[in-house]
Design a protein that fits this description.
Blueprint (H helix, E strand, L loop, with lengths): L37 E2 L9 H4 L4 H4 L3 E4 L5 H8 L4 H13 L3 E7 L7 H14 L2 E8 L5 H6 L14 H12 L7
Parallel strand pairs: 1-2, 2-3, 3-4
């Protein structure tokens, strides 16, 4: 949220922005115009945002992009570090609130390409009732240079991008659960 998007209360200083959704900006500043789509990724936000988000989230946010990296708890933990349960609980809460949500599923050969993985996420997302779109994202190595710059090993170095046929097949799994998959 830009400062110009809120009431000119003058008491939130440099706290405008995504932090406003985390409860740091006074509630009177979190009014329309609605925020731009915000990716509420539990790992990037260190799982603080899902716990702090209030029931006013749908009023303040047009869309939530929710990454569910894997349906298998062990694979999810291997990819992200934290357990799978918090994002699933958050997804259920968003459904209860009627919050429009896009699910993002990254197809990584050798990690998330097991048909049971896509089937599990698709069945879960299809049962929520608030998922208007699923982005099946083919793995790309665009972030490898960032990892190298940070001096961290890029553990997916030898991982290829999935074949277009694989991506199409996973999209069909999501579509078979009544979801709009792109």
């Amino acid at each position: 949220m830009r400062e110009s998007d809120c009431d000119p209360c003058g008491d939130h200083g440099d706290r405008a922005g995504p932090e406003g959704l985390q409860g740091r900006t006074p509630a009177r500043c979190r009014r329309r115009p609605r925020l731009r789509p915000a990716e509420l990724h539990p790992v990037r936000r260190r799982r603080l945002l899902p716990r702090r988000a209030t029931d006013a989230l749908p009023r303040d946010t047009d869309l939530v992009l929710l990454g569910i990296k894997s349906w298998d708890p062990e694979t999810y933990r291997k990819l992200t570090g934290p357990p799978l349960k918090p994002p699933l609980d958050f997804a259920r809460r968003l459904a209860e609130l009627g919050q429009d949500t896009h699910v993002r599923f990254v197809l990584v050969p050798g990690l998330t390409d097991d048909p049971a993985d896509a089937e599990g996420v698709a069945a879960f997302a299809g049962g929520l009732g608030n998922v208007s779109r699923v982005d099946v994202l083919p793995f790309r190595k665009l972030g490898e240079a960032k990892w190298q710059a940070l001096g961290m090993p890029f553990t997916l170095h030898g991982t290829p991008s999935p074949a277009p046929e694989q991506v199409a097949a996973v999209r069909e799994v999501f579509r078979s659960h009544g979801l709009h998959a792109v």
